[in-house]
Amino acid sequence: MLNAREEIEYEIVWELKSGTTNRHENWTGLGALYHVLPEDFPINEGLQEVAELRQGETWDDQLLDQTFNEEIGEHIRLNVHYEGSEGYWDKPYWMPTPSGKFSVSSAWQILRHGVDPNQEFKLMWIKGFPFKISFFLWRLWRQKIATDDMWRRQGQMVMSRFLCCQQPQEESIEHIFVTSPTASKVWNLFMGAAGIYVQLIQLKQIIRHWWYAQCCPKLKPLFQAVPAIIT
Fold it and tell me: Its domain of life (predicted)?
């Protein structure tokens, strides 16, 4: 939690009630001020709480000018208002959620630094389509099917023959789903009907020809679904 603090604290903004918030925190909406102020700006160590920057019901202009640079001081005068409610604690708001309440899931989304999702993965999930078929295509695309060639890549000694063919060959993803007699016959049947022409060599290449085929918009979901159905 301490390691995550520096990133997470940027997402907390303090609503001023009594002004007890440390002046370095994010109470201006600009972020934590010890990150916003220039490194060479002199720090007034005598000031700790925001309330100390007030003079009665208004900001102490002289103290603002001594504590912050011109841009931040002007921002505080124009945009930060509070009446100084005695007996009330300043209230933190968690900006990533509409309610302002902290959630672990929203913090995780900030910290995980996830890469942009693979757009082609989205094409495997079709509205109204059986989940198990889309999930199978996803596993197939990522080569997570337990075929003999996958076992061999993991260092296993495998004597491989795909016995579903009249002339058995090595059991591999490409042979089972592309080049075997049954697979090639099925692909050619449907590709001929759809007007798609591609050599049956590599599975991903065939699937992409279906996904990106030129067709009318109404047929697009059908072309998107056919590779999952065939495999």
Answer: Eukaryota
User: Which one, of 84, 83, 101, lies nearest residue 92 by Cα?
Assistant: 101
The three-state DSSP-derived secondary structure of 134-199 is HHHHHHHHCCCCCCHHHHHHCCCCCCCCCCCCCCCCCCCHHHHHHHCHHHHHHHHHHHHHHCCCCC
- In the chain, the amino acid numbered 98 is P
Q: Report the candidate in 70, 72, 19, 14 with the shortest Cα–Cα distance to residue 48.
A: 19
Q: What is the C-alpha separation between 63 and 72, in angstroms, rounded? A: 13
Whole-prediction pTM: 0.49
Task: Tell me the C-alpha distance between 226 and 207, whole Å.
Answer: 9
Q: State how far Cα 15 lies from the chain centre.
A: 29
- Token couple for 23: 């002046």
52-98 per-position pLDDT tens digit = 888 877 888 888 888 888 888 888 888 887 766 776 788 888 878 87
Amino acid 71 reads E
